[in-house]
Amino acid sequence: MQNGWIRFVRGFLVIRVDGDYMERFFNMCRMHDIDLWGIRREKEQEKDICMCEAYAADFFKMPPLLKKTGTKVHVVKKKGLPFYFPFIKKRIIFFAGVIVCLAMLNYVTDYVWAIEYVGNLQVSDDELSDFLEQESIHYGMKKSSINCEEKEKKLRETFQNVTWTSIYFEGTKLYVEIKENEKSEPVQVETKGTNIVAGEAGTITSIITRNGVPKVKAGDWVEKGQVLVAGGVPVYDEGKNIVGFQIYDADADIYIRTPVEYKCEINSGYPVMIYTGDPVRMGFAEIGGYHIDAMPLWDFIEHSILKKENENLYETSIEKHQVVLLDNIYLPVYYGEINRKEYYVKYFTYTEEEMKTKLSENFEKFISGLEEKGVQIVEKDVKMEKSSKGMELYGSLLVIKRTGETAAIPADTAQENEEDQIKE
Q1: Last residue of a domain, one of 322, 348, 374
Q2: How many CB atoms lie under 10 A from the CB of residue 403?
Q3: Distance (Å, whole) CA 366 – CA 371
């Protein structure tokens, strides 16, 4: 086997030996250190010949021996690496490109060029990206520099609802796979009960208490932040004396009549984007950190040399793809298309009627939004005025809406309430 590789590298010939003194020729070759092998006798047109193989370099030593023995030698076939050189030489650029590509491919496969998240529902991709950034994991870093087991442990510690993690590579792609709690239980926070306080000032129109002690009744005026329902329920003894408080989370349906102010302003002048109807499309490529645009020559002349000052605004959209080999080898090479629509901005002026219409439409949308939230409009007063920039609309509303915000009961509230009850 080893001799076979040596013969292939040195190059050898399959030759046909013909003559009356072939045995003498073979003996003389042996005396002159000309190596022949695979010698076999054959018949050709009722004539004896010999077929054998010899090194290409030794072939040029044979002419004196052939002359002395009257033997003829013909080359039947050429084998070995040296005989491929002319073929390679004619296509040197192609083979050099193949070698360079293989070298580059071998180099880039040691790095991370794509990251994918698997199994995350509660944890967003942005949160996982921020985690990787904090751990200094990014595109273009060497795969061997990432300790997957250590990062998996930190990932579980960072996100409490993550029960299982796996960080692994496939080609040049880094996969971050996680499993989360299917039933995410809220964190139990120790609380001492809650009150319901007013979210705005106004007059209480109705109050239905399900849990807690109501502190106001319908018709009462309340200020923002005032306690409407207390979570501390007094406990009485047989003599109807307060002996303590049972702390609950207050729960009630409370409605309040309160004023709402609205203001909207519109400028008389407004800009409009007018497209020229002349879109520009060009391909691009990104290799590493280098960006290459491929704009057609006529587009380059028209939009780079002959363009006017007021035609240099564009609306741009980019379609980008990454080069992938064998489904999992992502390369730092991107390609795509850039679509640009040329436009210019022209300013127009609203008439007074148009401004009134716009303001009225905006106010109606505001009213519709309140009604969708269950707010009842009792009164409304609308006024339009001209301003230095255009026109303004002022609206004063009186509405009935649901109120009440949850607030934790202060630690000393129950004690103060108890003292007040005893004094009474």
Answers
A1: 348
A2: 24
A3: 9
